[in-house]
Specification:
56% helix; globular
Length: 388
């Protein structure tokens, strides 16, 4: 299956991802071996070998089927500010249709997620987790019910919304040079190309004179995709100008029902193989790119398929008829859907509910801390009563 649109690419948590089964990975490995053989014959090759090795030090293995949307590092902070992100906090699918692996942590931690990522000391993280438990347990009965977890998920999702609004205000001012409260497509295009290394004044002059812009094929494809998205965010009556609220929809489609529909349409278009604008299980679990060339990669791909199959059958396909419509996918993607939040709360409780009482005690959350926060705190759970 070949994707038909260009995805805007970002680096996930500062890491470059390359599939261990990809030709690029094997080419790197072959180059390393050739350079190692030449060390004793050519001292000058040592520095080159070290450079390649350094490039590989931060490469993490990922399944061959994973999206390439995080393979390319942004050129500058400004590019981060004005490009729509592929990853949306608190949304279950990535923009390219892959499952959001951090979703549980995002809706449990909200804006505190970065603190757990930056602070890896288990004792401090345990204390934070105990504080969170106290806030979720609003009736103070020492356990968390599905309703309490639902309320908490909605609150944390709202935090992500508020953060997006805050960041959008800064981004909007960055692309609104005359400060008139509206941004034209041409104004945005100038800022986008400047973030890609083009001379801003030269681009602005060419656009003003209606001259052809000479850009590479990839940049042109991204521009076309952005332009389509730009006009989708332009609320009626269409004036080809985006105000701050419309610009928020452009960057964060989860904030707008209309743009949420557009995002779903794009995802279905990427995954739909027979063109009927619906998704079957086989379409949803199909590996989008690459094939596993070794057993380790095959095992990872198998896990990926199992996860998508479970999500399709148990969550997305609401009426369990084996077909996911755009309407079902839209409801699934809506981060402020209260029914989805309750369903998610029940799933999260089921993961750690060892005593099967349909609630979560603090010991259970601490024992399954990696699921909720990404941090392993099990060694520190035994003394919890002394601190709580």
């Amino acid at each position: 299956m070949v994707f038909r649109r260009v995805h805007l690419r970002f680096v996930a948590k500062g890491r470059l991802w390359i599939a261990t089964s990809s030709p690029l990975y094997h080419r790197f490995c072959r180059n390393i071996m050739h350079l190692r053989r030449g060390w004793c014959r050519c001292p000058g090759s040592i520095s080159l070998a070290l450079l390649v090795a350094l490039l590989l030090m931060d490469v993490q293995a990922r399944p061959a089927n994973m999206s390439s949307n995080r393979d390319k590092k942004p050129n500058s902070k400004e590019e981060n500010e004005i490009l729509p992100p592929d990853h949306l906090n608190g949304v279950k699918l990535e923009m390219d249709g892959h499952l959001n692996k951090d979703f549980h942590q995002e809706v449990f931690l909200g804006k505190d997620m970065e603190e757990f990522e930056e602070d890896s000391e288990p004792r401090k993280n345990r204390k934070k987790l105990i504080e969170i438990f106290s806030k979720v347990d609003i009736n103070e009965d020492k356990s968390i019910s599905a309703k309490e977890m639902q309320r908490w998920i909605m609150e944390k999702t709202q935090e992500h919304f508020q953060q997006a609004v805050k960041e959008n205000k800064l981004s909007f001012h960055a692309v609104d040079p005359d400060g008139d409260g509206h941004v034209t497509w041409d104004e945005y295009r100038v800022k986008f190309l400047a973030s890609k290394g083009f001379d801003e004044k030269e681009v602005a002059e060419k656009i003003k004179r209606n001259e052809e812009l000479k850009v590479d094929e990839e940049t042109q494809e991204v521009l076309e995709s952005l332009k389509d998205r730009w006009f989708q965010a332009d609320n009626p009556p269409a004036d080809q100008l985006l105000n701050e609220e419309e610009f928020l929809s452009f960057l964060h489609p989860e904030h707008s029902r209309g743009m949420l529909k557009y995002m779903v349409k794009e995802i279905v278009r990427d995954l739909d193989q027979d063109g009927n604008k619906k998704l079957t299980l086989s379409e949803f679990i199909s590996l989008p790119m690459g094939t596993a060339e070794n057993q380790e990669a095959q095992d990872i791909d198998d896990d990926w398929v199992r996860e998508r199959k479970k999500e399709f059958e148990e969550v997305i396909d609401a009426n369990h008829d084996g077909i996911v419509t755009m309407e079902e996918l839209e409801e699934y993607m809506d981060p402020m859907n209260e029914y989805n939040a309750l369903n998610e709360a029940k799933q999260m409780i089921a993961v750690a509910d060892e005593n099967q009482n349909h609630t979560l005690e603090l010991e259970e959350i601490l024992r399954y801390s990696e699921y909720f926060t990404g941090s392993k705190l099990m060694d520190y759970a035994r003394n919890v009563h002394e601190e709580f």
